[in-house]
Design brief:
The model has no long low-confidence stretch (mean pLDDT 97). The chain is built from nine helices and 14 strands. Strands 6-5-4-3-2-1-14 form a seven-stranded mixed beta sheet. With 258 residues, the protein is of the alpha/beta class. Strand 7 and strand 8 form a beta hairpin. Helix 8 packs across helix 9. 29% of the residues lie in helices and 27% in strands.
């Protein structure tokens, strides 16, 4: 049975392990090597389980640990052309890398990328399909749900979806105006409300596992994100039609099976 391990999830570091206890992939590596190793160990995993890293975009909270990880282990890094060029220019990859044009087949999984609207030259989400037909997706750092995002997420068995901020917390919070404007924009981040609205579409399409991710530690709380999304899922029965969890800032040794 496939598993998602949300190892790290916040505006300060993101990393998700997807696969089995024996082998899998990382989506992003935005934490130090030592923190990654400790998180893997807590989940009964090790760096030898990681067969590839798929990068969503070049912001530091998604790539911070790549340089050391790829220096210590022969792990292939996959990314879209623009992102890959930046990673290579910055010296973030110490080993093999491959441009991901659409999808890649690895250890019995098909990993497909799709574009997201974020304030970078190129960013993406990923949908992973296993040999038994089960699928999951990771989609954060998007200002809004585009038709392409919707097309790639609907029907996935499990989805880690961004619930970055509460509108009132961000509006009344300490951030400077320019930063608030950036986050609110269509290429910023996804609010709890927008996440909730789309979560209802996901459950309607057959998604049974929902993970709320990339929560801002300044403009959101796990309790607020969860309660807001549950409100929009009022037409469904929790723990029957769907299971909802919030990805922790740092793993507590939990995973989601599907």
């Amino acid at each position: 049975m496939a598993r998602i391990y949300p190892l790290f999830s916040s505006s300060k570091g993101n990393c998700t392990y997807i696969g089995t206890k024996e082998q899998g992939i990382l989506i992003d590596d935005g934490v130090s090597y030592s923190r990654l190793c400790k998180a893997l160990e807590l989940n009964g995993l090790s760096t030898s389980c990681i067969k590839a890293v798929f990068v969503t975009h070049e912001h530091s909270d998604h790539i911070k640990g790549l340089s050391v990880l790829t220096k210590k282990h022969p792990i292939t890094v996959y990314a879209q052309a623009y992102t890959l060029d930046i990673l290579e220019d910055r010296g973030c990859i110490n080993g093999k890398c491959e441009e991901l044009k659409e999808s890649a087949d690895i250890i019995g999984m098909n990993v497909r990328c799709f574009p997201t609207d974020h304030d970078t030259g190129e960013s993406c989400g990923y949908r992973i399909t296993f040999g038994d037909g089960k699928s999951c997706a990771v989609c954060t750092d998007l200002g809004h749900i585009t038709d392409i995002v919707e097309e790639n997420l609907l029907g996935a068995d499990a989805v880690l979806l961004e619930a970055n901020y509460d509108v009132e917390m961000l509006r009344n919070g300490p951030y400077e105006y320019y930063l608030k404007t950036r986050i609110f924009s269509n290429n910023g981040h996804l609010s709890n409300d927008d996440c909730g609205k789309f979560a209802a579409r996901l459950v309607e399409s057959g998604t049974t596992r929902l993970i709320l991710g990339h929560l801002s530690q300044e403009n959101n709380t796990p309790q607020l994100a969860e309660s807001t999304v549950v409100k929009y899922l009022g037409g469904f029965v929790r723990n029957s039609d769907y299971i909802l969890t919030v990805a922790p800032v740092e793993t507590r040794g939990e995973f989601i099976a599907f």
